[in-house]
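Translate structure to sequence.
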């Protein structure tokens, strides 16, 4: 898909949990402009010297003529984003990165594992897989009940969902990877299963270990601090195994990723 850099109107920008916002952007024919797992780089307008670089985000919903994403307020860029209103404009460079591999075999059961602010991007993947006719099971982890972002939409987009919270305020007490293992153990031994994940690095590392334990294919979407977002600055590299002898190559998360095979990553 051709990269586009364009000014887009904000339809909605609302707080959905403490310090978490959903922004919806007007984008004609959005479904044909993104592969799930790809991301975009957003520039806050009006341009200022205070915030020069764009900020990378992954869609949580890709509809016919709009795209939404959920963002955590972590620094000065996202803080400034919270002040944008419906009707304001942002500049968006898209689509960036590779996206998830969608299996050919529709009998494969897809287990999607999302944690923290990575969980909403699993909603976009769940909706896409469901639309393609796959059975989707979701394992979602959050600090507590308040931070189960877009959970009702996730329930609609999946056949089953196991929620895990750190304090047990919703679902089981524990982490998303334990929730994913629960789903695996409830499937038939003969089921073919693929794992997909997005969330904090310790969660993804745990998911890679789970995939190795059950010998399941697993793709994860990584986050790295980014500057350019399209392969020019080498600011976002990750070590990827080259062979079974501890040799590795550096890959750019923004261009070669953000989606990588989980057990190909050298976790540090
Ligand atoms: C592929 C990808 C998808 C992402 N999707 C989401 C999402 O859907 N929702 C969400 O809440 N967050 C997402 N992030 C993280 C998000 O980009 C950062 O939280 C955001 O850039 C922080 O900006 P800031 O100005 O508030 O923070 P600051 O710390 O002030 O940012 C300073 C600089 O560091 C960069 N930076 C800081 N944190 C990150 C980070 N984690 N990843 C990449 N660059 C960073 C900023 O872009 C900026 O250039 C994603 C990151 C990547 C790489
Ligand atoms: S952010 Fe510049 S190469 Fe990845």
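Result:
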């Amino acid at each position: 898909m051709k990269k586009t850099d364009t000014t887009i109107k904000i339809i909605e920008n609302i707080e959905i949990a403490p310090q978490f916002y959903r922004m919806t952007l007007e984008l004609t024919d959005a479904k044909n402009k993104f592969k799930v797992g790809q991301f975009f780089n957003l520039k806050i307008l009006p341009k200022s010297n205070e915030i020069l670089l764009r900020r990378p985000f992954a869609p949580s919903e890709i509809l016919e003529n709009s795209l939404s994403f959920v963002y955590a307020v972590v620094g000065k860029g996202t803080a400034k984003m919270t002040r944008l209103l419906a009707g304001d404009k942002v500049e968006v460079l898209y689509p960036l990165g590779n996206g998830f591999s969608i299996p050919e075999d529709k009998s494969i059961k897809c287990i999607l594992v999302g944690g923290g602010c990575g969980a909403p991007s699993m909603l976009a993947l769940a909706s896409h897989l469901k639309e393609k006719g796959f059975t989707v099971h979701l394992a979602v982890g959050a600090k507590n009940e308040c931070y189960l972002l877009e959970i009702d939409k996730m329930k609609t987009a999946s056949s089953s969902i196991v929620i895990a919270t750190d304090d047990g305020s919703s679902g089981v007490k524990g982490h998303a990877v334990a929730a994913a293992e629960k789903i695996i153990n409830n499937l038939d031994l003969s089921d073919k299963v693929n794992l997909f994940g997005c969330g904090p690095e310790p969660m993804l590392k745990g998911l890679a270990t789970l995939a190795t334990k059950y010998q399941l294919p697993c793709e994860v979407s990584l986050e790295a601090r980014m500057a350019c977002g399209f392969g020019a600055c080498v600011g976002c590299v990750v070590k990827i195994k080259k062979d079974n002898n501890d040799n590795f190559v550096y890959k750019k998360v923004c261009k070669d990723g953000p989606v990588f095979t989980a057990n190909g990553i050298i976790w540090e």
